[in-house]
Design goal:
- The protein is mostly helical.
- The chain has one domain: AhpD-like (Up-down Bundle), CATH 1.20.1290.
- It has eleven helices and no strands.
- It is globular.
- The relative contact order is 0.16.
Length: 216
């Protein structure tokens, strides 16, 4: 599965020790089958351990924020950070419970992306919109936060939930910007492929043109 795109080399699956092979099996089972990010990080097992711990906290029941909601936030951040990897893959741990989540939507694929692209005018729940607005604020150029924004969050989240949500958003921002800078691309990417968010940009007035990924 692993492709050779990007600036950084990847560990070879056949050279992983038993512990890392077991962890990769859990990655396939609970995250997604695309292993380009995993094998990039596996060259430095300590970095992989730190990343794995945060991912397990988000999707393994440690966080007060349901994984399905964080998946929507992560997808919105993927657009903000131009991260093709995160826009193309979806966590199985999140989608397995989507039917019971307050964050679940009836749309899939392009329909969901369209809602996330213009979430304030979408039919997404107000709780989800508040989380997405928080993600936009933290991933923007300016991160000042005022009383009105905090009050909007507190209508839907406790302070502990805001802590979980904010820290996991911060983790995802760094993760995605690293992917984008280093050109870590999913196996589904092909040269000349339409960027996932391009149809929404094209439909808007004065749509910007997204550049091709670096390091590809």
């Amino acid at each position: 599965m692993t492709n050779d795109r990007g600036f950084l080399p990847k560990a070879r699956r056949e050279e992983l020790d038993e512990r890392l092979r077991q962890r990769l099996d859990r990655w396939y089972a609970n995250a997604y089958e695309d292993d380009n990010l995993f094998l990039t990080l596996a060259r430095r097992p300590g970095v992989l351990d730190a990343t794995w711990g945060f991912i397990r906290y988000i999707y393994g029941g440690g966080s007060l924020i349901e994984p399905e909601l964080f998946e929507l936030v992560r997808k919105r951040l993927a657009y903000n950070n131009r991260c093709l990897h995160c826009s193309a893959v979806t966590s199985r741990a999140a989608t397995s419970r989507a039917g019971t989540s307050r964050a679940a939507t009836s749309g899939e694929g392009e329909a969901l992306l369209e809602k996330l692209f213009d979430f304030e005018r979408s039919d997404l729940p107000e709780r989800t919109k508040a989380a997405l607005a928080f993600a936009d604020r933290l991933s923007g150029e300016h991160t000042e936060f005022d009383d009105a924004e905090y009050r909007r969050l507190r209508e839907h989240f406790s302070d502990d939930e805001i802590l979980d949500l904010g820290m996991t958003i911060g983790f995802a921002i760094g993760w995605q910007r690293f992917n984008t800078a280093m050109g870590i691309l999913p196996d589904s990417w092909r040269d000349g492929s339409v960027l996932p968010w391009q149809p929404m940009l094209d439909a808007g007035a004065g749509a910007e043109t997204c550049s091709q990924p670096s390091g590809s």
